[in-house]
Amino acid sequence: MSQNYYLLGAYWEGDDMSETFIDESRWENGYNDKFIENVNAVEIGAKVAIKSKCTGGEGHKTSITKIKAIGTVTKNPKDGKHLTVDWDKNFEEFEYNGGGYWKAISRVRNKDYINKTFFHGKINIEKRIARLTWNSNDWLMPSGPTGKSKNQDTHEGKFGFGHEEWLFNTEKLIDGYHYGFLEPINKYFDTYSDKTYDTWLYTIEDIGKKRNRYIVGCG
Hints:
Elements: E1 5-8, E2 11-12, E3 15-16, H1 18-23, E4 26-28, H2 36-40, E5 47-56, E6 62-75, E7 82-87, E8 94-97, E9 105-107, H3 111-119, E10 126-132, H4 155-159, H5 183-187, H6 189-192, E11 197-207, E12 210-218
Parallel strand pairs: 1-5, 10-11
Antiparallel strand pairs: 1-9, 2-3, 4-7, 5-6, 6-7, 6-8, 11-12
């Protein structure tokens, strides 16, 4: 499972609860009727950060994010309110320009802000390229053996389909998430586990003596 990241608020009607949360190894949603599902969706092992927002610069037009604590979720009772968090020791607050995460809890998907918040801007997102089995149904469902590899040492060569053929089918979600399959990741799962990559996807259409290569997408 990939690593997920969240930004958390700690102001309750003007009172800063950051120190209380840090001292008590927890975080609490200050609302009784908001963000319940968001809190329940936070996974054990997720990285979280307490943030505060303000504006600065000329005319106070620049959005500024201050990071007050970073930790790892160790328990989620699924009550929409509470998370138990192992906050990093000897943490020093820092801030950076930008960031629009104003809500009490937000999942951060933007790689730039993940880097700024959780790695002080020191990591470089690596790039990888991965092959998908050939498919002529937009990878929504298997398209049959036509165009597949003839190599009997491969799954698609043996069975006429690859597990990637459902990659873009979003009809079946798990807790609101769509999970995909990449054979290059599956083969070296321990190497790639808990890492983030920019990935280029390509496929090969195997027709007779021709092997046509196509870029499918990137992200």
